[in-house]
Design a protein that fits this description.
Aspartate Aminotransferase, domain 1, about 350 residues, alpha/beta, 9 helices, 14 strands, seven-stranded mixed sheet, about 15% strand, Aspartate Aminotransferase, domain 2, three-stranded antiparallel sheet, binds pyridoxal-5'-phosphate, globular, about 35% helix
């Protein structure tokens, strides 16, 4: 068995230690004679796993007590509609910042439910940057302001947290737990698990308690944050295996020294890769320097006719999933928490060699 270096944008690589532990416990969890997958979500065994995972996440992110943590299904995409359904409130209005594919999809979905205003867009700039605070045209009296701190496809990240009067809502799918964040600045933080947390199927929602209970009338129960919160995310059967595995990832992250420590590694990994790209005349990244993502690094080759050969040879060298998103082409290296620094070193060595042979 050889584990290769996986640069997938999502579902993404998981720490070897976590997978090994899940494997060791798979058939017989803690000598109970069955798998965690086969247990009732209401058993005391699973409830202890669920509570521990929540506590570890609270510790890692320093989540204040007046926030609920929900373990839901439906992916970040479900949140694109769940948010307006729950937070538009009596105004029926929200402001959105448009910085790429994912914030764009969130806007489209929200427009089905209310009066959505684009507070800023970097479309004129091919989404190669994020707007400055001074460029945000925010309205008064809206239900919330939405943005994506890290655009996974474009590799564009905000280098500040927007200041807003209305509750700030952030799609943290691809950058949650990559760097410390002050949760108290947000009304809602949400993330699909499959980028920087665990397996697909689990969606995390961290929501300030005073925002619960404003759901539009006549909506399905599954779309009411308060019902999920009141039932400890067990309104129905939660994604138990994803919850358990994410809990193992949280414990692994604590062992790495927590979010501060992994952030240092993440910044070092990203800095190495960007400085290699910038120093080369063969590779390029178009994103404004201060908006470059430390999680997703898109890059192009000088001649796109070489893309196929690059990907095939990378694959042979054990460097997987470097193909860029189908909407932008080129390459993308996603270097989430679970991607070791050695993977980035190996990628840079490979890129240098490929450039020598083809440049
Ligand atoms: C991947 C991603 C999504 C979509 O997530 P799903 O879980 O597939 O719905 C949304 N937003 C961002 C920023 C993402 O990276």
């Amino acid at each position: 068995m050889t584990r290769k270096f996986n640069f997938s944008a999502g579902p993404a690589g998981l720490p070897d230690e976590v997978l090994a532990q899940a494997q060791a416990e798979l058939l017989d969890w803690h000598s109970k004679g069955l798998s965690i997958m086969e247990m009732s979500h209401r058993s005391k065994e699973f409830v202890s796993v669920a509570e521990q995972a929540e506590q570890d996440l609270r510790d890692l992110m320093a989540i204040p007590e007046n926030y609920k943590v929900l373990f839901l299904q439906g992916g970040a995409t479900s949140q694109f509609s769940m948010l307006p359904i729950n937070l538009l409130g009596t105004s029926g209005k929200a402001d959105y910042i448009h910085t790429g594919v994912w914030s764009g999809k969130a806007i489209k979905e929200a427009q089905r439910f209310g009066d959505i205003h684009i507070a800023a867009s970097t479309e004129h700039n091919n989404f190669f940057s994020a707007p400055a605070q001074s460029e945000l045209q925010l309205r008064e009296g809206v239900g919330y302001v939405h943005y994506a701190p890290n655009e996974t496809i474009g590799g564009v990240a905000f280098d500040y947290i927007p200041e807003t009067d209305a509750p700030l809502v952030a799609d943290y799918s691809s950058s949650i737990l990559s760097e410390p964040v002050d949760v108290s600045k947000f009304g809602v933080i949400y993330a699909g698990a499959q980028k920087n947390i665990g397996p697909a199927g689990l969606t995390l929602v961290i929501i300030r308690e005073d925002l619960l209970g404003q759901v539009m009338p006549d909506m399905p129960s599954m779309y009411d944050y308060k019902l999920h919160a009141d039932n400890g995310s067990m309104l129905n059967t939660p994604p138990t295996f994803g919850w358990y595995l994410s809990g193992l990832v949280f414990q692994w992250l604590k062992q790495q020294g927590g979010v501060e420590a992994i952030a240092e590694v993440n910044r070092r990994k990203a800095a190495k890769l960007y400085s290699f790209i910038d120093a080369s005349g063969f590779y390029a990244n178009p994103v404004a320097i201060n908006n470059r993502s430390i999680m997703n690094v898109p890059f192009t080759l000088a001649d796109s006719a070489l893309d196929k050969a690059f990907l095939a040879q990378a694959d042979d060298a054990g460097l997987l999933n470097l193909k860029g998103h189908r909407s932008v082409g080129g390459m993308r290296a996603s270097i989430y928490n679970a991607v070791p620094e050695a993977a980035v070193d190996a990628l840079i060595d490979f890129m240098a060699q490929f450039e020598r042979q083809n440049g």
